[in-house]
Each structure stands twice: as C-alpha cells, then as structure tokens.
Amino acid sequence: MDPTLLKVRRAVQAAIATLSSSTDGVQLSETLGTIKRYLGGTENQVSLKEREEFTHVHFSTFLQGLVSNLSPEWIELLTSDQQKELWDSFFLEGPADQAFLVLLDSIISTGPSFRLMKIISVLEQFLQTGGMSALMWEVCHQQAQAGSPMLQETLLNKVVCLPDHLCNKLHGSNLPIFFPQNYFPLLATEIIQVLQRIADSLRDGLDCSISFVSQVLGKVCVHGRQKEILKVLMPRLIDLTMADCIWQRMCWRLVECVPDRWMEAVVCGFVQTAPGAGVLSRLLGNLVVKNKKAQFVLTQKLLLLQYGYATAVLQNLIGYLALDSLRRSLLIKVLKELLETWGSSSAVKHSPVEQQLYVSKAILICLAHLKESEVESNSQELLTSLMAGMKCHLDSNLPRIRRLGMIVAESISSRISKDGPSLRFQYEDDDETRELKSLWMHTSPQPPVINLPSVCDDDLTPYDMSEDKELKKMKAPVYIRDCIEVLTGSEDVDKWEATMKVLESLVRRNSAATREVSLELAKVLLHLEEKTYTEGFVGLRQRALVAVTITEPVPVVQYLTSQFYSLNYSLRQRMDILDVLALAAQELAQPHAGGKKKPCSAQSPCISMLPGADSSQDWRRIVDERIKSKTRRFAKGQSLAEPACGPNRFSSVAGHFFFPLIQNFDRPLVTFDLLGDDHLLLGRLAHTLAILMYFAVHTVVAAAMGKALLEFVWALRFHTDSYVRQGLLSSVSSVLLSVPSEHLLEAMSEEFLETQSWLADVAENDPDADCRRLAWQNLLLMENLLKKLRSVPS
C-alpha cells in the first residue's frame, strides 16, 4: 500500500482511539487539530493526495467516531471556541454530502439525549450556512465524473424527506427550520445558489451535471410541496432568465432532466405558478416537443382528463403551445381533441357540468390563438365539429349546457365565417357568459416579430403559367410493404393520402402478404397521425386496422389488448383500440357465403364507432331486437325468424379479445385510472366487453366469459357515473343472451340470483332513466329464461 495513504489511515485510527479513551482536554484538542489538517483548514497544510484520501475514504468514519463519543462530560473537556473550531467545523467545513448523511443517520438512530440535541443543533447550522447548496454542488460534480448512483439516490431521499424524518423523531420539540413551510423555501434558495455556480462553470467552459438538482425538484414536487418550493424558485428563475441565454438554457435543462415519473408534478407546478404564457415559454422552452411525458401532461391530462384548474392556467398552457412554431402543431391537435370531446353526445350527457365548462374554455382559448391560415386549412373539420357539438348541446335538458354549446358554436362560426354571416343565439348574459366570450376575443401578447428586409412585389417579374398542365394524380402503392414505407417515412403528402385510401382494400385482397407484416402494420396504424387534411382519415385508419385484425386475429389482438393498458397512450388511442376490437369481433362473427360478407341484418347490424358517435346506442338497439325475439310470448303477431347460421370465425379467438381487456381494469397506471377519474373510458370498456360477449354466442368460451363479465359487473355495480352503469347493464344483457341458459342456472346460479337482486334495485331506484329501462329489460329476460327452463320436460 502507498506509504502516504497508509499514514493517513493510521492517523485516523489513532485519533479515533484517543477520542474514545482520553479524558485530557489538551490531548483531545491536539488530536482534533491534527485531523483537521486534512480538511485544509490550518496553516500546516498536508499534501493534496493525503487530503483526498481522508475525504474520500476516512471522513465518514471519523465523523461517526465524533458522534459516538459525544457526551456532556466529553464535550466539556473542550472550550466553547474549541467546540466550534474543532468539533462543529468537521460537519460544517468538510464534504457536505458525507456530513449530512452522518448527521441525519445519527439523529434517526439516537434516542432522546444530550447527543441528539447537539447533533440537531449542528444540522440546523448546516442548513443555515449553505450546507444544502454545497451538498448539491458536490453531487453535480460527482455526476459529471460518474459518481455512485446508489449514494446519489440515498442523498436524494434524505434531502427531500428531511422534514418527515425530523418530525417523526422530535414530534412537538421540532425546530422551526425543519418545518416543511420553512425548509422547502430554504431548499429553493439553495437550488438557486447551485444553479448560479453551474452557470459560472459553464461560462468558464467546464462540464457540470444538473440532473441531481432536477431530481430534487421533481421529488419535492411529487411529494406535494410544489407551492412551498416554487413560490421562491419561480420568481428567481423568471428574473434570471429574462436577459441571459445561459440561464434560459439551464432552466430548460433543469426541467428536461426531471425523471418521467416526477415530470407531471413539476410541469403542473410551473403551469400553475407562471404569471403568463410568455414566461412559461421562456422557462420550459420546447419541453412539450422533446419529452413525451410532458407532452402527455400538457396536451392530454391537463386538458382532457382533469378539469379543476383556473382559467389562468388554461391560458398559460394553451398560450405556451401557441408561442412557438414547433409547438403550434400541438395546438391544432389539442383543439381537435377538445372539439371531439365537446361534440361527443356521451360526454355531454354524462360528464360533470364543471368539466364541460372547462373544455369549453379551452376550446375558446385555442380558437383565439389560431391564425387565419390555420383556420382556413382546418375549416372543414371545424365545421363538422360545430355541427356535431351544437346538436348534442342543444339536445341537453340543462340550460347551462345548452348555453355553453351556443357560445362555443358562435365562436367557431365566427372564425370560420370571418367575412360572412355567422351563428347568433339568444341566451342569458351573466358573468360566466361574459368570461367565456372574453376568452376567444382576447389573446395573450405575441412575441415580437423581427422584420427582415424583403423584396418588393413590384420588383418581381410575373412568371408565365399559361402553358402549365395539371399534374397527374399520385399512383397508389400496390404492395402492403410499400404502404408501410409510405406511412412511416414518406414526406409526399399526396402519396401518403393515396396510400390511406387504398390500404383497406389491399389488406383484404392480399391476406397472405398481410399476415407476414400484420403486427408491424397494426403498430403503424395505431400510432398514425394525420400528416395533412385527408377527408375521412379517422374512418380510413379504423377500417384498415379492422381489416388487419380480422386477417391475422391472434397476434394483432394480443398486441392491441396489451397496448390498451400500456403507458403513454392518449384517451383517444385507447378508445380506438376498443372500437377496432368491437368492429373486428362483429365482422368475424358474421356468417359468410361464398367467401363474401353478408349484409348486416337486424341480428348483427353494423356498429358505428367513429369518433363522436355513441356506438353503444346502436348496439343497444341490436340487443333490444334480440330480446324481443327471446320474449316473443309477450309480442303481438308472429315473431321474427332467427337468421341463417354460418361459420362463426370469432368463436376460436373470442378469448383473445375478451380476457386481456377484463384482467387489468382495476390496476391504476401513471397515465390513466379506470377506477378513478377516467369514467368515460371505463364506460367504453364496459360497452366493448358487452359487445364481445354478445358476439361470443355459441362459442366454447362463452360460459367462462360470462362468469368473468358478471364478476366485473358486480365489482362496479355501484359506480357513480350513469354511462358506466349503462355499460354494466348492457353486459348483463349480453351474458343472458349468449351464455346457455342451463349453464346460467346451474354453474352460475349464485351469480344469477345476486345479479337479479341488484337489477331489481336498479330498476326501482337508479336516477338514470336509461339504467332503469335496461334493468327492467334484463329482469324480463331473466324471467323468460326461467319460464323456458321450467317448461322443458325433465
């Protein structure tokens, strides 16, 4: 071993032995002074190599020795000045990360005593003298030099949870500095100090990592302390980034380096705290474009899945999307998704009024930020959304809902018909109305535009276009693989549009080729976004995905069902998955003749599931027709004959559709929670399961599916959302229609009786008229099944 390093080790060991045994104050002070040389705090300097050996290898051990020997008798051997210079200084002047860990671990493991109070006093001094900024600065350097991840994780937990540790230990004797309302503002001040040192390092051309500071910020925010830390941090960042490009870029990195699991808490805190969209844009930069988690939070969760934020937060968020050319595509996307929700009859009927007001405000703010060119390029979609949304709002029996629809419809109409007549309604003019109108008539200040020298029009020579000929229409691909290449890589929008229009027919005509790339094509279609306006794009994409699914059901369905519960999918994409599964199940279940699909009959009609349509209403009419055929003794005249039976391709794959969907509904994820706020998606899931159950009639797995579905219904039977309850009641209808009656009353008798009792209660007491009707319908069907079984001779 290196003699120099061995010398340091022996010195530390001798010092610890002396501190443990000596009762001579002079000897103790000399021993402490000898060791303090390794911190560089005395005139007798030691070599850099010895100092590094001490701080990296022996410092924590020595601090633990200091703590273990601490007692009233021992400390009295030193004068007051010696205590500060030769005991306290080791914790206040040495490596801050090691000192902090030893102090906190000692507090946690020490009972009420003089030692505990002394350590707490030193920890208080540590915080008051910039110990936290020194600690974070040391870790930032360690990260730049690939330090220990385990040590950094330990430090992160201790730094963020310090108030919890001290509160649990001291209870009523806790010091004010350790209270959360005092500690986290102090931590914010220390963060600014660290960022200042990082900025100085960058100006000097030195590398330095910011990720530990980002982790501290993220973990504090996710622990619910955004208010305490951001009330100090945000004003300082706003001032420092105003005219300093290094601080701006450093602030962007500060947020970008926050781990995904904490990104939501940080982003929400910034959006709520920023005094305007321009400031938010300066602090976040293009985070929404670079980070998928931030994009989900800003464009989905804060707008479509939550609705408790103030109007100023919406203005911050949407204004932020509008303030940069790279982000404006997301502004258009957000507006389309908001209009899709606004135009959904199911959402209008079942969503809380407060959520509908929130969505309406967001739409109006988006419209206010649209440029004329953007309005013109999206005018057809705006008009379609206007017609759908206006109808379902005006059909509502709530005056407030109707008024919201009128105001949003007026604003859309005004933007579309800039120079022509627009819609005008009569409604009460109150504070809410005036606020809504002000949102789309007023936009946040736009960033200044730099005027560059331009060529005057008069200097340009007109180009002769009289001989120009119209370009031929783009030839569509004829091979499946070519379609995939166009959809994933081509920048030719005409070729892309032509591919979308022929894709379904190509898939259906080329089954063998489709099977080779079915999974790849399904992934492309599920994530496909509209590159340019294509008429009927949503329907084209959906029909193509259905065609792929029925061509190669098992792998494609396994992929779709697994993605339904995966992270980082939008609400729209999850609903797309449900719609495709239901449509594919319907087509697979239809009888075929000569290889061609039969037209849909009353018993298996086409299910309309395009966005904005309430597919469950169409499907309920199907069930009503079949229930009538099952209860024909109460009908007048001759009942309808059952349609001709044929091969049911759905029978062999029904389990792949059904069971993966029903298995994980009660497992909350980061991006959505079916048993929490995502009522609309849960309702759609219930209706989809009902549809799959319906088409599983005469299949081997129908009984197992029915039992699982009744358990699903039983778990959610008291759900507060009427749309979810309607889906559950539709599921009961499907079970009664598809599971053999003998099996229902023998193998599932207990579930049958429990369901019957619940249905009776719903039929009498449910506040929703559709729920009561469905419950009575199911009770009637149950009674008919019982009578049918009793009439069969034994």
TrEMBL record:
Pfam families: TELO2_ARM, Telomere_reg-2. It comes from the Eukaryota. This is Telomere length regulation protein TEL2 homolog. One of its GO terms (molecular function) is telomeric DNA binding. Keywords: Cytoplasm, Membrane, Nucleus, Transmembrane, Transmembrane helix. Coiled coil: none annotated. It comes from Pelusios castaneus (West African mud turtle). The keyword Transmembrane applies.
